[in-house]
Amino acid sequence: MNKLLLFLSAALLLTACSQPETQELSYADTEEWIHLFNGENLDGWDLKIAGYELNDNVFNTFRVEDGMLRVSYDDYEEWNGELGHIYYQEPFSHYHIVVEYRFIGEQVANAPDWGFLNNGLMLHSQPAHTVTLDQLLPISFEMQFLHSEGEIVRPNGNLYLPGTQVILNGELTEEDYFPSSSQPYFGEEWVRAEAVVLGDSLVQFILDGELLMEFTNPIMGGEGPLHYDPEVKVYGQPLTSGHIAFQAETHPTDFRTVKLLPLKGCMDETAQNFKNYYVVDDPESCQF
């Protein structure tokens, strides 16, 4: 528990550990981040766009350009309900994820107002292959990226719960949307978004180093998402792990960094792969 609290304190204050360049780190101290996006292609990812089969990248919505993962509407004449998500194929349970994103350009023609400057990081998501043909959102909990423009002013880093519930401020959520305490974000500047996810216990949302909200005990429950498979959604089942996904919600978006630090691993100090930042032990992963 002390180790967990120490890690979380560091995550809140620094959001990433750093060391002076002159100081050598031991293997146990060296953070081994996984770069989920390789900057070259979409290997390791699945695509699912509402109304289309798995991995049908209609109108080349998800693409790689200039080393960035892009949500693009260049090949659309207008939007007709093609709500999309791109899912990392490997699931995770305990981790710290860092994403750098920006909104660019104009919203696609015929898009709904709710999609304006809107994207999101879907966490503990169901796998792409279990999403039905017409399902709009995966069962997950979302760190919503929502920017402002002109007189349209709203917070960023909000919590949305498609088909899930959490304990927030000591109570089980009954609604599915909870705005954060963030300042509004304007323009096309890059934003650093982070989440610390510890299985089905604690989750924290962080924007540019500021803790926005934290909640616990995510489970399947509540309403939606529309057109889900009832066999996939088991009411009351804890969300102990899941997939990571980004959205295509009608506004062009760039992602240049998508990296993840696993927090579950070998905690035996005699093992070759011991890391002192792990917070949950996985004895089967130990290498001697």
List keywords for this structure.
288 residues, mainly beta, Jelly Rolls, ten-stranded antiparallel β-sheet, seven-stranded antiparallel β-sheet, 1 helix, 19 strands, globular
Short account of what is shown:
This protein has one helix spanning 2-13, and strands spanning 34-35, 45-49, 62-65, 68-71, 84-88, 94-103, 118-125, 141-146, 158-160, 164-168, 171-172, 177-178, 191-198, 202-207, 210-220, 243-248, 253-262, 264-265, 280-281.
Architecture overview:
The chain is mainly β and 288 residues long. It has one domain: Jelly Rolls. Helices cover 4% and strands 35% of the residues. It contains one helix and 19 strands. It has one helix at residues 2-13; strands at 34-35, 45-49, 62-65, 68-71, 84-88, 94-103, 118-125, 141-146, 158-160, 164-168, 171-172, 177-178, 191-198, 202-207, 210-220, 243-248, 253-262, 264-265, 280-281. Strands 1, 3, 4, 6, 10, 11, 13, 14, 15 and 17 form a ten-stranded antiparallel β-sheet that branches. It has a seven-stranded antiparallel β-sheet with strand order 2-5-16-7-8-9-12, with no helix packed on it. The longest helix is centred in the first third of the chain and has 12 residues, at 2-13. The protein is globular and about 60 Å long.
